[in-house]
Amino acid sequence: MSNFLDITGCGIEFQTPKGSFRALRDVNLKIKKGEYISLIGHSGCGKSTVLNIVAGLLQATEGGAVLNGKEVNEPGPERAVVFQNHSLLPWLTAYQNVELAVKTVFKGKKSKAEMKEWIEHNLALVHMDHAMHKRPDEISGGMKQRVGIARALAMEPEVLLMDEPFGALDALTRAHLQDSLMEIQKDLNNTVIMITHDVDEAVLLSDRIVMMTNGPAATIGEILDIELERPRNRLELADDPRYNHYRSQVLQFLYEKQKKVEHISDVKSKKSDGKTKVA
Amino acid sequence: MSIALSNISWLEPVVKIAKGDDVSNNLQVIIKAIGVPMAGILVFLMLWHAAASNIETSLGNFPGPADVYEQSTGLIEEHFAEREKAEAFYERQEKRNEARMAKDPSYEPKIRPYTGKPTYFDQIATSLVTVLSGFILASLIAIPLGILTGLSPTLNSAFNPIIQIFKPVSPLAWLPLVTMVVSALYTSADPAVPKSFINSMITVMLCSLWPTLINTSVGVASISSDLQNVSKVLRLNFMTHVTKIVLPSSLPMIFTGLRLSLGVAWMVLIAAEMLAQNPGLGKFVWDEFQNGSSDSLGRIMVAVLTIGFIGFLLDRMMLSLQKAFSWDKSAEIR
User: Fold this and answer.
1) Three-class HEC string of B29-58
2) Rounded distance between C-alpha atoms, residue A148 and residue A168, angstroms
């Protein structure tokens, strides 16, 4: 299969009052259609930056991403994003949130009835059909994230970008959503790039795990192919030696090769920065 | 929509007592809810009374609570007397017209409007119409402009110095300029509304523009970056972005601005009416001051209390509107 999404020589330098800051250098990644990629690395290693460049929310200073033969210059619904903190519009119900996306993307392509059906279909995919007329403040964090995923899926994206989609959820809800996501993936077979901090999540969901070196000037350290047949079952895999091998390889990369010593000053600046997510 | 009064907390214990709940506990709640504010008012009235009897002016004693009460009933009686006169006036005309019609069928009946002086309640009504027209005009300018400056940092830097300089300007400084400009531009032979009305309205507008403008701008500028990213990913066009993302998310701040603006508008109006000689509460105060009868100070004091009370009601009205339009029902709005 040919390359579907091509990230070549990608780097980015931010201009700050203290001078320029190089966040990424020389990121090269070729992704096939239908592949599930996880980006893993320590906080501040530029995972989100890579995702935002593919999403078009950030512009690479050198190199860039090419999707389906077209260079990525701006954000668009064909590269739908699932944000870490759901980013639902709090004044709209779950249905209306998905509706806003569907109406924008399928304007003139689907009839009103088709749109309604499509919205309901996507909410049913993430098992939110029972609460689709509730507003975000009336549903739990896991449910909000489900709606966020439904909204992204409803755009029928060529590639689905997920920025720590389950990072803000408790472990049980997270496992539940991971299972849902695998189920959906089995049917839709979307191309996915997912950022995660969770080693188990990465191994369980991905076809390939892209491990990033520490910033500044972060880049791809290693890429690990996960050759576990699907459908995957978390209980069966728990005792699978291959699973544990992959797991330990990721752990080795993160905690031996890229061992990160956080200085107190770093932590402080991160807190004041507010954007950096702490695992 | 009901007007949200600040203290209806005493209703709940009343209902509880009626239901046969423990009396003494609920009575304490009622006393706290009604008794304490009442005591405050009572002490204030006593101090007012004591102070008033000691202030001697050229128009007699400063009006105490009793004088003010007397003047207020006087104003109410005057209002009804004037209304009766007006009714009698129209009745006489109708009778006369009927009589003439009976004599001469080709006669076209005429009704002349009653031209008695406006009563206190007419003045209040005029003031309300003026303040609301000025306030609505100001909002129609301030909200769209605030959205634009909030969306564009460049536009904001361009407008900010102008806003900061004009914001503290007193209505009294604007009024002469407004008067001259209005008399130069508004020159229809048969004006639909009097010039003095336009003068006060524009002055109110100029002064009440700023709180809404600033708050809208800040509200729009502080939309969460996540929601902005959603809008970018969906490639929403400008109008959809404004109506679906910007407006709902900055609505709480816009309403904060509107409430402040309406408060400013009401304050400015009284000063504007005094100087522009536009009928209304301000002119009422000014006329009474010029009149200088022994009743004048008492009547002015009635106007002072009325102005305060209406200002309070206007604020409550905005609060109710804010609650009705707010999507975040859990947020405490006061």
Assistant:
1) HHHHHHHHHHHHHHHHHHHHHHHHHHCEEC
2) 13
Strands (E), chain A: 3-16, 19-32, 36-40, 62-67, 70-71, 81-82, 159-163, 191-196, 208-212, 220-225
Nearest-by-Cβ selection for B235 from A57, A77, A89 = A77
Q: Residue B285 is which amino acid?
A: V
**Closest-approach residue (CA) in chain A for B226:** A87
Nearest-angstrom CA–CA distance, A264 and B128 = 61
CB contact under 8 A, A55 and B233: yes
Instruction: Please report whether residue A193 resides in a domain.
Output: yes
Q: How many CB atoms lie within 10 A of CB B110?
A: 9
What pLDDT was estimated at residue B276?
Answer: 81
Contact present, A44 and A270 (Cβ < 8 Å): yes
Neighbours of B179 (CB within 10 A): 20
Q: Which of B223, B225, B234, B244 is the best substitution to test chain A (most A C-beta atoms within 10 A)?
A: B234
Q: What is the DSSP string of B209-250?
A: HHHHHHHHHHHHHT--HHHHHHHHHTT--HHHIIIIIIHHHH
Domain ranges of chain B: 11-54, 120-325
**B120-325 to CATH, choices 3.40.50.300, 1.20.140.10, 3.40.50.2300, 1.10.3720.10:** 1.10.3720.10
Q: What is the pLDDT of residues B253-273, one digit of tens each?
A: 999 999 999 999 999 998 888
CA–CA distance, A98 with A121 (Å, rounded to integer): 11
ipTM: 0.84
Predicted TM-score of the model (pTM): 0.81
Q: Which residues of B are less than 8 Å from A56 in CB distance?
A: 232
Residue A39 domain-assigned? Answer: yes
A71: domain CATH number is 3.40.50.300
CA distance A77 to A81: 8
Residue B6 has pLDDT above 50, yes or no: no
Residue A42 lies in a domain: yes
Instruction: Please give the residue range of the domain that contains residue A7.
Output: 3-80+157-273
* φ, ψ of residue A217 in degrees (nearest 5): 55, 50
**Contact criterion met (CB below 8 Å) for A92 and A40:** no
Omega before residue A231 within 30° of 0, cis = yes
B-facing residues of A in 165-204 (CB < 8 A) are: none
B223 close contact with A: CB closer than 8 A: no
- The count of domains in chain A is 1
A67 touches chain B (CB under 8 A): no
Residue linked to tokens 């009235």: B45
Q: Indicate if the alpha-carbon torsion angle A82, A83, A89, A93 is positive or negative.
A: positive
Say whether A108 sits in a helix, a strand or coil: coil
Which of A277, A222, A206 is closest to A48 using CA atoms? A277
Contact predicate B282/B270, CB 8 Å: yes
Residues sharing a CB contact under 8 Å with residue A267, sequence separation 6 or more, in sequence order = none
Cα angle A138, A143, A146; round to 5? 140
B117-139 pLDDT tens trace: 788 888 899 999 999 999 999 99
- C-beta separation of B174 from B207 below 8 A: yes
Comparing alpha-carbon positions, the chain A residue that sits nearest to B237 is: A104
**Bridge partners, residue A7, by sequence:** A29, A65
A138 within domain boundaries: no
